[in-house]
């Protein structure tokens, strides 16, 4: 990417029915029976809330007037700025020959584990956490592996090919997301959504064209073929990891997902840094400035990972990737102040096109947008009632209209 990294705020309890949770994690049969009744009550409340939300008289522009739409736009730009920050700090490190792509990301995974593992242990307890490790640990390991390797191969691509080629290859991650969501998660895109994605890609094309006109595409790379192959692999891994993460955060608490992403990320990234970054340490510069840049890089990336789940819940992996296209625009804005870049007249046009594409994507005449996930079953029964989810919106609506008891969960927790 120009956005080198993708990722994933908290939620309520897992969406698996509480009876299923008892079976999976060893609660007693009495508890299972009691919670099954609670689950039935919650399911009825969700069904009533969804009926109320979906029966509203909506127009093609209705979603644009919702709070959710503006939150998605705002979050998307915050994430794009975080990515721009990580790229800027990486450029600073490269300027003093401190090229340690795996090692510098290790601190992010460590910080994620430090923040979210205690929350997970407090919410679940040691025994339940260990059961989750035994049952679902391999799934979290795959998610972490995809994330770490996507980061690594994208950085390698920038080392071998030019910027224009690397950015063009980032479009492939959007293609992967759409294909995987359609085939594996049963997402069905409407023509207006496809049109919105294409308009966003057109905006990115204008941005790349302006870079080419200005001669800021990086010239000829050291090994264009190798770099392009690394970029293609990195974009593919990103696409898969984004879809996998959307599936995870729609079904499990966010603190749990981020905690495991941090734990396994430390292990995978640590081994990779020990193998591939070991030689870079000898010629690297180590001083106060480098320490500050590493801190800035880590904070930007951790904020990115912590906020990303909201877009994945309120929107989708496709919207997540499309929003990050604007990171190139913000990168140039910062570059004018830091690296002396100049803004081409086509840049504002590109930014407006990307935002317009996002607006067009949501002209689907539904009040829930992409927050209602098709893989969660009827009434989102397999989903978590967490912040940003359709299930929580339905519970809140049912409670507001008196269609659910006040005992029904209607507030997402942190």
TrEMBL record:
Entry's Gene Ontology cellular component terms: membrane
The organism of origin for this protein: Cladorrhinum samala
Protein name: Solute carrier
InterPro entries from the UniProt entry: EmrE-like (IPR037185), SLC35_F1/F2/F6 (IPR009262), SLC35F_Transporter (IPR052221)
Phylogenetic lineage: Eukaryota, Fungi, Dikarya, Ascomycota, Pezizomycotina
Membrane topology category: Multi-pass membrane protein
Source organism, top-level taxon: Eukaryota
Alphabetized GO MF terms: transmembrane transporter activity
Subcellular location: Membrane
């Amino acid at each position: 990417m120009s956005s080198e990294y993708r990722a994933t705020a908290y939620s309520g309890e897992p969406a698996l029915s509480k009876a299923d949770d008892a079976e999976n994690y060893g609660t007693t049969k009495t508890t299972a029976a009691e919670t099954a009744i609670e689950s039935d009550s919650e399911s009825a409340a969700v069904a009533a809330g969804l009926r109320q939300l979906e029966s509203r008289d909506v127009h093609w522009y209705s979603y644009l007037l919702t709070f959710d739409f503006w939150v998605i736009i705002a979050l998307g730009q915050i994430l794009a700025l975080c990515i721009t920050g990580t790229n800027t700090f990486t450029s600073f490190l490269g300027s003093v020959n401190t090229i340690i792509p795996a090692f510098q990301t290790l601190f992010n995974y460590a910080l994620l584990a430090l923040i979210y593992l205690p929350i997970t242990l407090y919410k679940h307890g040691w025994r339940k956490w260990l059961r989750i490790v035994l049952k679902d640990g391999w799934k979290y390991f795959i998610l972490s592996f995809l994330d770490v390797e996507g980061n690594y191969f994208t950085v390698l691509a920038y080392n071998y090919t030019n910027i224009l080629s690397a950015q063009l290859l980032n479009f492939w991650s959007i293609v992967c997301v759409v294909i995987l969501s359609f085939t594996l998660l049963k997402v069905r895109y409407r023509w207006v959504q496809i049109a919105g994605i294409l308009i966003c890609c057109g905006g990115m094309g204008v941005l790349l064209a302006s870079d080419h006109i200005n001669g800021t595409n990086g010239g000829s790379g050291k090994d264009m073929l190798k770099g392009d192959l690394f970029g293609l692999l990195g974009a593919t891994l990103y696409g898969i990891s984004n879809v996998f993460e959307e599936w995870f955060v729609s079904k499990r608490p966010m603190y749990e997902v981020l905690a495991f992403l941090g734990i396994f990320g430390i292990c995978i990234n640590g081994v990779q840094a020990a193998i591939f970054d070991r030689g870079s340490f000898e010629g690297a510069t180590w001083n106060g400035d480098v320490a500050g840049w590493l801190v800035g890089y880590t904070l930007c990336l951790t904020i990115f990972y912590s906020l990303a789940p909201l877009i994945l819940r309120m929107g989708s992996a496709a919207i997540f990737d499309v929003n990050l296209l604007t990171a190139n625009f913000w990168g140039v804005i910062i570059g004018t102040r830091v690296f002396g870049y100049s803004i081409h007249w086509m840049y504002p046009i590109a930014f407006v096109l990307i935002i317009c594409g996002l607006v067009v994507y949501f002209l689907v005449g539904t009040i829930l947008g992409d927050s209602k996930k098709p893989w969660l079953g009827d009434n989102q029964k397999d989903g978590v009632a967490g912040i940003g989810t359709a299930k929580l919106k339905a519970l809140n609506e049912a409670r507001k209209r008196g269609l659910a008891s006040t005992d029904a969960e209607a507030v997402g927790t942190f």
